[in-house]
TrEMBL record, chain B:
Native source species: Megasphaera paucivorans
Keyword terms, alphabetized: Membrane, Transmembrane, Transmembrane helix
Membrane-spanning segments: 16-35
Protein's name in the database: Uncharacterized protein
Length: 561, 224
């Protein structure tokens, strides 16, 4: 044992030493490679001028060709949608960027410095589809957004429409992943796609003369309804639902600010494209709500109403009917939404909704504290609503009108050891205390224990049922069968009696006689056999008689003369 | 009725067709970039334009210098004012010596037969637009780029440009008719000796160029 322990300790020390050695080795390798890389870049920068132009072009094309071969190999080996495929696709993206950048700087003509990003984005998109790479698609969307942001949507070729077209080209990737049931990539793509859409909207709206929160709310409503159209158990619906909510409330919050409406009043005329896109989004949202939503819930309906509300407010403002009403209505509605979310969280124990409701209130508080941006009337209304809400909540908690679900939660959380491990350990303890776990066990103590373990609403229901029903014997217990099993008696080796020596001698004698008889029989059988061939020779092959087979057509035509 | 059964999918039968298309497209773009540069150099109309060369700041050094064109304002020919960073077209022509003549700028291309430069708006006021052209790099050996320190205010620095369809390539920069590559220390010595011989003075006493403050990068000031 001591030797084994010593050996184990030695092995552990050896492995630890190896790990230390390798970690040091890795650190040195990383530093070395970094220094070598920097030196390489520095050296290349010094000699770059002296490299002929044709050689630079060859380098760029070779880099591109190698990455294309990699893509082809990955496709041939059917690595699409795997981590290797993702890596190959990303390397391909990098190679395209390197090649185009090399060529653009070598053959410099003074074209737009960001235009090459547009070119690169278009060139990497097919590779992303071919390898089913979510990372490449995200890179593509990032490049498009960067290009639009740096160039300016108004000055980029094709303008705002081109940016949306380029982003829309990544849309079929969603269908592709959904058809392949690739849930992980689909969830990642959904998050990235939703964020990209809102970022694109931000870039496009940055150059607008007013804050287009009506269009923004319509977009948010559509995104939200798309999320609700997806199965709630699927992970890829989460970004649509939550980012849609966030954007819708953001648009509503903006509509609470007088400054936002000022710009809407001052603008000479809305662009027809904005109006058309808003109307299209509203129709699209209505279609999703009517057709695709599996269950008509309150939550999406409340959020889907936001664009309609802001639309109606915009009509009022543009017609000069009422300037304060939109702010007033928006403030009330946003408070109502906050209350609704808090209520959802408290009533049904949904922590996310509770947090979201509180976040809405924080947003409102921040908007109020921002100063003079919010009208005093809206502030008064908001205070009234806050007080009313507080009063309602106080009443709510005082009367302890808690739901069955909350009762169950409270009971479960009241136990100190309510964790996964503690629950398992508790079960194990119970098993140890009651090793014979018979299904027919029906002690009174166990029944009470089982009832305590049940949630509150179930115990209440059980008690009510048991009190209401008369006690009748419906199951007659089966009589236990009489067992014929006899317990074995074990004896020690000393207790077992040994046989006599005579018997041993007789047994030996019989065995000898039997052996003699067997040897005699063998020798007789060998003598009777005639020895014709060598025992090591091959046995003579038996000549088979030839049996000629005749074709069924062999006698055909004999009868003819 | 299914009109077209085409799906962009890694499983579809068209994936190799798409792959071949991708390869061709990528190589074509690379080829076009090189061809465009070559085509401007061969087919482009040559111009001469006053310029100021500057050293480019970079961590690892560059194989080019930045070229600034001081003649960067002209009259705006359109009724609607240009927006900042908008792409505009500067109408140009050339005189008998081949020096560029800037005739105005517009948001629209000139009629066929007239030459133009692509540029972006830097500023606008009183119907005068300030623009920035794209071709602002000149490839030069880093060892020979020091010659720009010796360029004086009175020196004539001309960039030789070729233009085609609004895009340009700088072919060379000449300081008093001498290529910038030869304006370094070696060229100075030869110039000094030539000037000394002509004036009958020792070479060391002759200063060929006056350093212009605009040509030298500003020194770093110690801010306390």
């Amino acid at each position: 044992m001591a030797a084994d322990n010593k050996k184990n300790k030695f092995e552990i020390a050896d492995t630890q030493g190896r790990i230390r050695f390798f970690s040091l080795y890795m650190l040195l390798a990383v530093i070395g490679i970094s220094v070598a890389g920097i030196a390489g870049i520095w050296g290349a920068a010094f000699t770059w001028y002296h490299i002929p132009i044709w050689a630079k072009m060859t380098i760029a094309l070779v880099i591109l060709f190698i990455s294309q071969v990699g893509v082809g190999m990955a496709m041939f080996q059917e690595r699409q949608g795997t981590w290797i495929g993702e890596g190959v696709a990303l390397v391909h993206c990098a190679a395209v960027f390197i090649s185009v950048t090399l060529l653009e700087t070598t053959f410099y003509t003074g074209s737009s410095s960001y235009f090459y990003m547009w070119v690169c984005a278009v060139l990497i998109l097919p590779g992303a589809y071919l390898l089913c790479s979510a990372a490449s698609i995200i890179a593509y969307a990032g490049v498009v957004l960067y290009w639009a942001f740096m160039t300016g949507v108004s000055y980029s070729p094709g303008g705002c429409v081109m940016m949306w077209i380029l982003l829309a080209l990544a849309g079929p990737f969603y269908m592709l992943l959904r058809d392949h049931h690739d849930e992980v990539r689909l969830a990642i793509f959904s998050w990235a796609g939703t964020i990209a859409v809102f970022l694109a909207f931000g870039i496009a709206a940055g150059e607008a003369p007013y804050i287009p929160f009506l269009l923004f709310s319509a977009l948010a409503g559509v995104v939200l309804l798309m999320g609700y159209a997806i199965d709630s158990r699927k992970a890829w619906g989460v970004p649509f639902r939550w980012l849609g909510r966030l954007a819708a409330v953001g648009a509503l919050l903006v509509s609470c600010l007088p400054a936002a409406w000022d710009s809407v009043i001052r603008v000479a005329g809305f662009q027809w494209t904005n109006i058309a896109v808003t109307v299209l989004l509203l129709f699209f949202g209505a279609a999703i709500y009517g057709k695709a939503l599996k269950r008509k819930l309150w939550s999406p309906a409340l959020y889907a109403l936001i664009p309609l509300l802001i639309g109606a407010e915009t009509v009022l403002i543009r017609n000069g009917i009422a300037f304060s009403v939109p702010i007033f209505v928006s403030s009330i509605y946003i408070f109502f939404l906050g209350m609704f979310e808090v209520f959802q969280g408290v009533r049904f124990g949904k922590a996310h909704h509770l947090r979201w409701g509180l976040t809405i209130f924080i947003f409102i508080g921040a908007a109020v504290l921002m100063g003079s941006h919010v009208s005093p009337f809206a502030m008064v209304i908001s205070f009234i609503v806050i007080c009313a809400a507080g009063w309602q909540l106080q009443r709510f908690f005082r009367k302890k009108k808690v739901s069955f679900f909350q009762q169950a939660r409270q009971k479960r959380h009241a136990k100190k050891d309510h964790t996964v491990t503690s629950v398992r350990q508790g079960i194990n303890k119970k098993r140890r205390n009651h090793p014979v776990d018979s299904p027919y066990k029906s002690n009174a103590a166990d029944i009470t224990e089982q009832q305590e373990a049940l949630p509150g609403w179930m115990t209440d229901a059980v008690n009510r049922e048991s009190a209401a029903l008369p006690h009748t014997e419906t199951v007659s217990p089966k009589e236990p069968a009489v067992s014929t099993f006899v317990a074995p008696v074990f004896h020690g080796p000393d207790q077992i009696p040994l046989p006599d020596k005579k018997i041993f001698a007789e047994i030996k004698k019989e065995a000898k006689e039997n052996k003699m008889k067997q040897t005699k029989k063998r020798s007789e059988s060998v003598k009777t056999k005639p020895v014709t061939t060598s025992p090591w020779g091959t046995p003579a092959s038996v000549k088979r008689k030839k049996q000629f087979t005749q074709s069924p057509w062999s006698k055909e035509g004999e009868s003819k003369k | 009725m299914k009109v077209m059964n085409f799906r962009i999918s890694p499983d579809s039968k068209y994936r190799w067709v798409l792959f071949i298309f991708l390869v061709i497209a990528q190589f074509s773009v690379c080829g076009y970039i090189a061809w465009r540069w070559h085509n401007i150099q061969v087919d482009g109309i040559p111009y001469q334009w006053k310029c100021i060369p500057r050293l480019e700041q970079s961590a690892f050094g560059t194989d080019y210098i930045r070229v600034v064109f001081p003649e960067d304002t002209t009259k705006w020919l359109d009724d609607t004012e240009p927006r900042l960073h908008e792409t505009i077209y500067v109408y140009i022509s050339r005189d008998d010596k081949g020096v560029i003549q800037i005739n105005g700028a517009s948001a629209h291309k000139p009629p066929v037969g007239e030459d133009y430069m692509n540029a972006s708006v830097v500023g606008y006021g009183d119907s005068i637009v300030q623009f920035l052209v794209g071709f602002d790099r000149y490839r030069i050996d880093p060892a020979k780029a020091d010659g720009i320190y010796d360029i004086g205010v009175s020196d004539s620095v001309i960039a030789s440009i070729r233009m085609k369809k609004g895009e340009g390539v700088i072919e060379g920069i000449f300081v008093n008719g001498m290529p910038l590559e030869f304006c370094g220390s070696e060229a100075e010595k030869t110039a000094e000796s030539l000037a000394g011989k002509a004036a009958g003075k020792p070479a060391a006493s002759v200063k060929t160029h006056i350093l212009g403050s605009a040509m030298v990068p500003p020194k770093q000031q110690n801010v306390e």
